[in-house]
Amino acid sequence: MVSFRLAVVAQLAAVVDYVSGAALIAERVPEKAQFRGAAGNRFLHLITTPLTGSMRYTAYKGNGSIEDGWPAQGQWLDFRTLWVTNQRVQINKICDNTEAETGDLYKAIFAVSKTTGVDPRFILAVMMNESRGCVRVQTTSLAVSNPGLMQSYEGRGSCSDPAPLTPCPYKEIEQMVTDGVAPNEAGVNLQDLIARSNATGVEKYYIAARMYNSGPNSISSDKELSVGGADACYAADMANRLLGYIGDSCGPSDHSESSLEWSPTSVPSWDSTATTAAPPTVWWTPSAANAWWTPSPANAWWTPSPQSTWW
């Protein structure tokens, strides 16, 4: 059996989160700490609920409904966890993105989600299936041109066509995401396809995924999502990715069982409040007594939050 393991954030292991184009190295830190980035000081929070468990690729069959065994939207992992796992395992290892470009990608997903109402987790899942999050992904062309991060239908955004563009500017990254999500003349985009599914439950996402991959008229009369299309596994891939799967389409390439396991962890998130104060800068080093973190004035990344009473 082929299996692979992923410790999203193992105890005392660093996780990299890109916000406002700056790399945030978040280890096990107090509940609140400050990071001085390009956009000013922002408070880092840690979600302390352990993420434990294992996930195996499931070849879902049927119409995408809960009744047919597909995962409910409430079972999807939160965006932060999906982002961190995909970033560490695929974006950082496969793509040639700069830190700023990956940060811009993160922001673009939320910007487009806000304007279209499409769940950012669904946008991320489709993007990872289409381009692995590589901002200079090549355009594919069969009957039509499919450029950019979403390999969209006749999209306008690209950082590879006609030649690789470095750095890939934010406006181009946002355009690539917009091309695949927001309404376009052809109607081949996530927002329109979700509406076209004529479903109100979670199946609307899986039906939209099927149509995004193989066209608006690709749903069979029996509404079976696992047949036909450019990639018969596409809808099932989305369901698995939204549960945390990171791997090949249709599961492991040798068709053996594959699992993705998490160690107990905390995942960082950001407060929306920026501050202008710049208190004395400190680092955090492991405390042998309790395996947490204590200030070290030798370095200069983390600044204590005056609102935190942990120390």
TrEMBL record:
<feature type="signal peptide">
    <location>
        <begin position="1"/>
        <end position="21"/>
    </location>
</feature>
<keyword id="KW-0732">Signal</keyword>
<dbReference type="InterPro" id="IPR023346">
    <property type="entry name" value="Lysozyme-like_dom_sf"/>
</dbReference>
<feature type="region of interest" description="Disordered">
    <location>
        <begin position="256"/>
        <end position="275"/>
    </location>
</feature>
<protein>
    <recommendedName>
        <fullName>Transglycosylase SLT domain-containing protein</fullName>
    </recommendedName>
</protein>
